[in-house]
């Protein structure tokens, strides 16, 4: 049996969730084991606890993507799934750097097509002048190894757009 005891989580997680539905710190009956919340949610929460994700940056990038693509993101837990097929990423790159996509975007729903689209985004961004340092790796998104890195790449694209004083006209 698990009981909730007083404790604090990383500031980023608390800020991210506001009034969290997850317990702050749990322990077993004899206090021999402590953990943050339920095991099922650890994959989602761990990067926040470790400081690998930044709520403000992600919120800003998601709002920017929604503004330029006019496609709206799902809730916070499903944002990785929303980006995972690569079509949103390719659409963002095509808007930011028109004509920069090296290959056609695949709309089929399969892991192979998703990998093709994400690779297309990465190769096209690199060909468009984005330094390797700013690019995430395929596994960061498809295997959800480091979603924060994906958002840092998109934030870099956004900042480059600002630096070049490019305004995006969408009808």
Automatic annotation (TrEMBL):
GO terms for molecular function: actin filament binding. It holds the Pfam family CH. Residues 55-162 form the Calponin-homology (CH) domain. One of its GO terms (biological process) is actin filament organization. One of its GO terms (cellular component) is actin cytoskeleton. It comes from the Eukaryota. PANTHER family: CALPONIN (PTHR47385), TRANSGELIN (PTHR47385:SF14). This is Calponin-homology (CH) domain-containing protein.
